[in-house]
Write a structure and sequence with these properties.
By secondary structure, the protein is α/β, with parallel strands linked by helices. The chain folds into two domains: 3-270, 3-Layer(aba) Sandwich (Carbamate kinase), CATH 3.40.1160.10; 280-377, Roll (Archaeosine Trna-guanine Transglycosylase, Chain: A, domain 4), CATH 2.30.130. It has 15 helices and 17 strands. The protein has helices spanning 3-10, 21-24, 32-47, 59-67, 76-99, 112-116, 118-133, 156-166, 203-208, 221-233, 248-253, 271-278, 290-297, 340-346, 354-358, and strands at 14-19, 25-26, 29-30, 51-56, 105-110, 137-142, 171-176, 197-198, 238-242, 260-262, 285-288, 303-304, 308-312, 320-324, 330-335, 365-367, 372-374. It is globular and about 70 Å long. The two termini are 30 Å apart.
């Protein structure tokens, strides 16, 4: 038994369990046997006085069978209609399964737009916290019935990472149809071995991930590594395990060498910085000189107008923007105190001249350090950290 793993699971009092479509569904729709088994295992976690949030896929896959379709619909209206049919069946299955253990569930349907708005983000956080305080198990899913590409999480791996941060979870467990992360694709290489622990996701680890989501799902191992980057950068460990195997959650929380454990990259980020880093989509870019780059990266300072040499994009006060060095490498993301038009007028000048130029001054800082997150704490898609 790994002491490293045992320490992670023993200290996990609040857990997010993500259940993928490949685990929950079969050719006949939602696999009630799997749901009943997982609910039995989750009830054991509740008996250990652990709080549990479920992020559940399966609405579209469930609806496909119920409507009588043979494959995933191609058009957005058809997908949304199928999700509307399937979501009811899915939450009903959870409700009935947990009722045998005297446990109640609550359905939470979200879009990315719900979490990019700070007020709605906090409202969602307070709602989830209240449900957990009441001993109720939230079952979270993306609101596929109304979501469009602009407000889509992408997949439930990404959603589960955001929920783990939103709820300040101690551990994220992602259940899939694979035993964990292998050093090569086990469907192609018989000698493939599971990697028990990952301390850092580098290019080699990313190379191990084969993006093969399957017929009913949308997220493969690459998607799970992106989710892992987000949670571990925020200080939350993650375990990938096989949800099709009986007692997988019991084995995980007994500290057994099951699946792959991804350890946090560092200390947990403050809640607001997690929101900035992993929920918001940058609306522009600010290019900095060497002095400003050093001040942000090494000295933890705020960004002043004097260190700005250029910008791109149209954005308003409070918008998230990327900060780049003079070689256009990403330094981090922050919330601006001035609009793009205002920054264009005050770039390169000292803070004491802002009011002379604009006729007013919102703040001495263009980005306050409390509203800035370094690149090292951000999972950037397509880049290696």
């Amino acid at each position: 038994m790994s002491q490293e793993r045992k320490k992670v699971t023993d200290s996990a009092r609040r857990v997010v369990v993500k259940v993928g479509s490949s685990v929950l569904t079969s050719s006949r729709g939602v696999d009630l046997g799997v749901i009943n088994r997982l609910c039995d295992e989750i009830s054991m976690l509740r008996e250990q006085d652990r709080q549990v949030v479920i992020v559940s896929s399966g609405a579209i896959a469930s609806g496909i069978r119920k409507v009588g379709l043979s494959e995933v619909p191609k058009t957005i209206p058809q997908k949304q209609a199928v999700a509307a049919v399937g979501q009811g069946s899915l939450i009903q299955a959870y409700e009935e399964a947990f009722s045998h253990y005297g446990l109640k569930v609550a359905q939470i349907l979200l879009t990315s737009d719900d979490l990019t708005n700070r007020r709605r983000y906090l409202n969602a956080r307070h709602t989830l916290q209240t449900l957990l305080d009441w001993g109720i198990i939230p079952v979270v899913n993306e609101n596929d019935t109304v979501v469009v590409d602009e407000i889509k999480f992408g997949d439930n791996d990404n959603l589960s990472a955001l929920i783990a941060q939103l709820t300040e979870a101690d551990l994220l467990v992602a259940l899939t149809d694979m035993d964990g992360l292998y050093d090569s694709d086990p469907r192609k290489h018989q000698e493939a071995r599971i990697i028990p622990v990952v301390h850092r996701i580098d290019q080699q680890v990313e190379g191990f991930a084969g993006d093969q989501p399957g017929r009913l799902g949308t997220g493969g191992m690459v998607s799970k590594l992106m989710a892992d980057k987000k949670v571990t950068a925020a200080g939350v460990p993650m375990i990938i395990g096989n949800g099709r195997k009986r007692y997988v959650l019991k084995q995980i929380f007994d500290g057994e060498e099951v699946g792959t454990l991804f350890l946090p990259a560092g200390r947990r980020l403050p809640s607001k910085k997690q929101w900035i880093a992993h929920t918001l989509k940058p609306q522009g870019e600010i290019i900095l000189d060497g002095g400003a780059t050093e001040a942000l990266r090494s000295r933890g300072k705020s960004l002043l107008s004097t260190g700005i040499i250029g910008l791109r994009g149209e954005f308003e006060v409070g918008a998230p923007v990327r900060c780049l060095n003079s070689e256009e490498e990403v330094i981090g993301i922050g919330l601006v105190n001035y609009s793009a038009d205002e920054i264009d007028k005050i770039k390169g000048v000292r803070s004491n001249r802002i009011e002379d130029i604009l006729g007013y001054k919102h703040s001495d800082e263009v980005i306050h350090r409390d509203n800035f997150v370094l690149r090292e704490a951000i999972a950037l898609k397509g880049e290696h950290t």
